[in-house]
Amino acid sequence: AKESGRNNYQYFTAAMNARVSQRLLLENNLRQALARQELALHYQPQYDLHSGTLVGCEALLRWRQPEQGLIPPDRFIPVAEETGLILPIGQWVLREACRQAQAWQDAGLPPLVVAVNISAVQFRQANLAALVQEALAASGLSPCWLELELTESMLMEDGERHTQTLAQLKAMGIRLALDDFGTGYSSLAYLKRFSLDKLKIDRSFIRDLPQDAEDAAITTAIIGMARDLGLETLAEGVETEQQWSFLAERGCAQMQGFLRARPMPADEITALLGRHRSA
Ligand code: C2E
Ligand code: CA
Ligand code: CA
Ligand code: CA
């Protein structure tokens, strides 16, 4: 028993060491990723649910690591947040998304709102509004074409400073969206405290529509509440025609999902926009 206990222990530490060194490798590689230009943005189209028009796109980070291949954001963003690397990376995302949105407009394509995910770590920076302003100024993009995606937990954090940051961003004319809506906190008080523009209904409520009665009730309630509060709604993760019609019938404004388009490189969006213009 003693013998096998020791073996288990050795096995355990070996597995743990492997995990720790894998994590260190990821962290060290991530430190180089920006300078080595391994990061890129893909863009996922967002459509008006009634006209079917392309109205916006969400910028989604991609990391092509030379040895490990494509590493999904769910794996490296937590590491970037723990190490603080999310700050330079997040600023690069903001600048690159604004630059791209302005480049589409400069090419004479129909203007699109570009949505950028903001990490809680970025949101805690006292100078976030100034950093956003810097990205807009560098690109020449008008603030009305930039949407920042925040999460419920970020708005719950610390009242004073966050209220001020949000007020500054709104005063600049930037759009604010609440990401993964419905998965965070049960308190809805912040919906009236902050001036948001849009609720993004989380994919987990959309997935089993229209069959799942609870999800149907929740989604319908969110759309109705948003309408009464003067907020736009976007359904995330729409994958079927039935989901599309369910949402359209209930007055949801926009959708984003594999049914219409996956995240894609900027040049594919350029082609989509070109077709939109000639249509
Ligand atoms: P998110 O903000 O909720 O982004 C939407 C995710 O859902 C994306 O995954 C997208 O590819 C996926 N998705 C969209 N439509 C569908 C669908 O119809 N079906 C399914 N199954 N999935 C769909 P992705 O690109 O892997 O991003 C994962 C998460 O990583 C994002 O979730 C976001 O939290 C984070 N992330 C991505 N880019 C950034 C970034 O630039 N900054 C920060 N802070 N976080 C980011
Ligand atoms: Ca998002
Ligand atoms: Ca989301
Ligand atoms: Ca998410």
Walk me through the structure.
The chain is α/β, with parallel strands linked by helices. Helices cover 52% and strands 20% of the residues. The chain contains twelve helices and nine strands. An eight-stranded mixed β-barrel has the order 1-2-4-5-6-7-8-9, surrounded by four helices. α8 (190-193) links the parallel β6 (175-181) and β7 (198-201). α1 crosses α2, α3 (86-106) packs parallel to α5 (128-139) and α5 packs parallel to α7. It is globular, with a radius of gyration of 21 Å. The model has no long low-confidence stretch (mean pLDDT 92). One calcium ion (CA) binds next to loops. Keywords: Cell membrane, Membrane, Transmembrane, Transmembrane helix. Its main location: membrane.
Largest sheet: 8 strands, mixed, barrel
Assembly category: single chain
Helix residue percentage: 40-55%
Q: Roughly how many Å is the radius of gyration? A: 21 Å
Q: What proportion of the residues form beta strands (DSSP E)?
A: 15-25%
Ligand set:
ligand C2E, calcium ion
- Computed structural class: alpha/beta
Helical element count?
A: 12
SSE succession: HEEEHHEHHEHHEHEHHEHEH
